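Standup notes
- DV: blocked on the single-chain target, sequence here:
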Amino acid sequence: MFIAMEGSSPTIFGENNYKYYVWQAYLNTKESKKIYIEGPAAISISTSPVNIRKMSDFAVSYINRFDEPVYLIGWSRGAAACIQVAHNLARTNKKIEAMFLFDAVDQDTSTDSNLNFIPKSVKNVYHAIATKKDWMDRQIFPTCGKTADPSVNFVVKKFNATHGTIAGKGTGDDGSKDWMWSKMRLYNLI
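- DV (later): unblocked, structure below
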């Protein structure tokens, strides 16, 4: 099954979610069981209608309905929600075959999990990290998902792209889409 978690919305209220590479992957996956989870509003906290915790809880409830390989893709807070799913599943027997993360960031207070750490419930992680962030972007979009359990095949690649362009906002992704698509092809997902 393929679970796509969007990163954000351009507005305070959450409508008109950005739909870049995560959306494209969702539309193009070969997986028949798939869901797309919209991201939170531009600003989210623990009481927001959509936040990292609520996104991950929704994904876990979907995962628990089936017994088949799990693949997750996410950008920004959607990527952080993917990591939260891994933490939730670490308490069960379910494993995530692979996670595909575009510049995971933890920006809300909805979870107390260590979203900088990817637990052993994940077999493979591919994390595209944006490096073209100015001081303010590093404060607003602090990268998480930077370490993993030793049993995880953890592959990180840095791209000279902004937080938005690494996931398809405009041009200048520095090859992040091609790299991530090549990783998804290893699993026959697209």
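- Follow-up: The radius of gyration is 15 Å.
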